[in-house]
Amino acid sequence: MNDSLRFPAEWEPQSAILLAWPHAGTDWAERLGDVEDTYIALVAAITRFQQAWICVADDDLQTYAEARLRSARVDMSKVRFIAFDYDDTWLRDSGPIVLREGGGLRVLDFRFTAWGGKFEAGRDDRLVEALAAQGLFGAAPRQRIDFALEGGGIETDGAGTLLTTWQCLHERHPQASREELDAQLRQWLAQDRVLWLEHGALEGDDTDAHIDTLARFSATDAIVFQACDDPSDSHYPGLQAMAAELASLRTADGRPYRLFPLPWPAPVLDQGRRLAASYANFLIVNGAVLMPAYGGTPDARQTDDRAAAVLARAFPDREIVQVPCRPLIWQNGSLHCITMQLPAGLGR
Predict the structure, then answer these.
(1) Which of 341, 324, 339, 343 is nearest to 19 (CA)?
(2) Which of 55, 168, 228, 337 is labelled catalytic?
(3) pLDDT, tens digit, 9 for 90 and up, residues 1-35
(4) CA nearest 195: which of 240, 247, 122, 235?
(5) Domain that holds residue 204
(6) Does residue 231 lie within any of the structural domains?
(7) Active-site residue, 337 included
(8) Domain CATH number, residue 142
(9) 348 assigned to some structural domain
(10) Element housing 100 (H / E)
(11) What is the pTM of this model?
């Protein structure tokens, strides 16, 4: 690993969580009310522990969002609004990836192509540049990198190991070999090694198997992952194969990882379409883990509680907070996908 650079793990101290408020000009328009309720619950949960930085498209949206949050008794002293006109709200993938550099920070600005050109992303690709121009990153320099990479597609343990999926990176860069992609990720993200998963994907997921829907580090020697124990489910073969892959991985010092399988959420359908519900799409904040809850029926709520119990074992020093995320998966993502953590020391 580069001695002067380090990619911090999500569980390290944070300054804030970055997100963007949904509005009628985004993909949420058709079900905006339900999605706003989820955002309010999420901001309320975040601000119990740290600041929330919320992008808003214009002054009117800021006024509206502030009114909704105040009516929900959110601690507004921990909310900061940022003006930027975005295409959509998936800031995990369009937002900054921040490295520690000596005693400071470096902001990486990878190219955002809306998951391989699936959607319009011209404004979102300029998000990091716009935030830097407003002075949001303080003295931290911004480094633009002409390489398509999304934050949801990578997971680090903070100690030089990166976890990702071959399907996603190969789809973005079909002409590149495994060795080339491995070298580029290690160089730009200051990693000693890259662990590649070959299996695992969720129906309804248009990110081409982002790792943050599948498997996440909870410590340098532990991985939490989305399991499937229902042989009749179409996901069973792929997620069983992924579980076997994770069992074969070794830590940097040669030990098997401690593995925490998450229960399989009951299928969530929307007009017959299977939605990509995953408990692996949790968000770590200072002192807590915010967990997507899908609810809907008493059995589904029991499964939410079982997932929370697994996360409590994986993160024994953190509070587990369930956030209702059923409206989010209508657009094929969940709680982690709409947020990006900003490490401690970033911003002004």
Answers:
(1) 339
(2) 337
(3) 456 899 999 999 999 999 999 999 888 989 999 99
(4) 247
(5) 5-343
(6) yes
(7) yes
(8) 3.75.10.10
(9) no
(10) strand 97-101
(11) 0.96
